[in-house]
Amino acid sequence: MEARMFNAMEKHNNVGFLCHYVFGNGSAQYVFLDVDNDGAASLNPSLGFSLAASAHVCASCNGMLLFSRNINGDNLLSFHVFDITVRRSVALPPLPHLTPRIIALGLAFDGRHYQVVLVLSSSSHGGEEATTSTGTTGGHGGGGIIEMEIFSSETGTWRHHTTMIPLPPYLPKLSSAPLYSNGSIYWELGGYLLVHNIQSAHSYLLQLPNHSWTWSWRSMTFGQCLWESKEGRIHYCYTDYQGIHTWALMNQQDHDYYSAYYTYDHRKFNWSLAHTVPHHILLSQNSSIFLRLGQSTHSDFSNWKPYYISPYAYSEDSQTLFLRLPGIFAAYNLRTQTLKEVCTYSFPGTNFYCCSFFPVVYNGRKGNAVVMGNITGFGGETEAVVVSLPIADTLLCQRSKEKES
Question: Given a cut of 60, is residue 389 above it in pLDDT?
Answer without folding.
Answer: yes
